[in-house]
Amino acid sequence: MAAQTIPVDDFDLVIIGGTGDLAKRKILPGLFRRLCAGQMPETARIICAARSDFTQDEFKSFVREALEKFVKSKKKNKKQIEFFLERLSYIKLDALGDEGWEPLAKTLRKGVIHAFYFSVGPSLFAPLAERLLKHKITNDNSRIVVEKPFGRDLASAQALNAELARSFNEDQIFRIDHYLGKETVQNLMALRFANALFEPLWNSQHIDHVQITVAESIGVEGRGAYYDKSGAMRDMIQNHLMQLFCLTAMEPPATFDATSVRDEKLKVIKALDPILEVDIVRGQYRADGDSPSYQDESGNPDSTTESYIALKANLSNWRWVGTPFYLRTGKKLRNRASEIAVVFKDPPHSIFADSQDLKGNVLTIRLQPDEGINLSMTIKEPGPGGMRLTEVPLDMTFAEVLGDDELSIPDAYERLIMDVIRGDQTLFMRGDEVEAAWGWVDPIIKNWEEKQAKPAPYDAGGNGPDDSLMLMHKDGRRWREV
Ligand code: BG6
Fold this sequence. Notes:
This protein has helices spanning 21-36, 56-70, 78-85, 101-107, 125-134, 154-167, 183-193, 224-227, 231-249, 258-270, 294-298, 398-402, 412-422, 431-451, 466-473, and strands at 11-16, 45-50, 88-92, 113-118, 143-146, 173-175, 207-215, 280-286, 308-313, 325-330, 337-344, 362-368, 372-380, 389-397, 456-459. By secondary structure, it is α/β, with parallel strands linked by helices. Helix 1 (21-36) packs across helix 2 (56-70). Residues 148, 216, 235 line the site of 6-O-phosphono-beta-D-glucopyranose.
């Protein structure tokens, strides 16, 4: 089934940090695919800006290589790549000085949308916003896109919001959480609000608990310096897992627009109970044969930063009181697998033979790999011999239903960049939402820092620390195998 694309209006997109890893792996390949899909207008232009001394030709070779490596589509061909490269240019820019800003101002066309993607560290967000204003490069229709991490605690996020607000209105600031751009995450909203089947059951009367897992098999690799100052709490829980949690738990918004959706997500965060120390497990992977430990990889032999977290979150509101949400994420685990599993309550009474326990249905929204939706059902085993029951999956793997070409299921960044051009903030975090999320995790992190708490070691390639199993066992539940 071919994806339908609605072309966006003409634009000039400036990627500041345009030679960085994110630009190379995600932003530029994503734009290329949108051009191939007919969504990026042929007149649109991409201006990459960075500190390096690149000639235009050198820069184009750099992008050509990136596309060869990071675009897998069978439909990619040399002619298309050259056509894409014609839309690109490079400017040497000093984020903290004045070099490059006048040429940038002259390059931008009048009468088209201007978007500025800050693909740089957060310490540069405010200086960049100020320079755009000082050099009169922006107007009320310009947008800025900022990457995570958005601050490292509540105070720094508030300060950053205030600094950006000096140059831009909230409706011009697009705070990216790329998990919101994942197809399956958006499908969670379609599943809940475009089908009448689940919503009547979507509450503590029928749902026993929810498990949200984002497991990675890779370690911190070359990102040790950044990661060691963040840890899983700041890097994953405060943003990606919190967003998945909000979309699962929120009330139906009246309409699918930025204000309504973000209002509902904010209400979820505000209804969270403070987290108890006994309801959270921190871990750090240790060395295993040839596989280095977290401390080796991060370059900090005494590091107490966590590479794994499992926690139980409770909501105090009518819909969810009594239904816990278990969240876990970690690096160097057995598999790369992310999912939201909604575990329904067991049937209240079995009319079948005593030996047959009836299990609650589990609705799984799989983010990666093999994006799709799965509902476990109990059926009768085929054949004679009485009423033997068995569980089977009702499985919808998107690639099978929708086709697995990259142009059919776009990468998260593609969708989000097109939303920036459209001016649609529904899948971006609002300033108050980010602050509320920090407000919830801050006391936990502060407590660890004060106590100099050490994370529990776990084996690379396993399921995380044993304590995380206990987190579930003490509630009479167990983690799903992912
Ligand atoms: C990033 C984190 O935001 O998300 C990384 O900084 C993490 O540590 C990554 O690996 C996971 O994203 P994805 O899309 O590969 O699940």
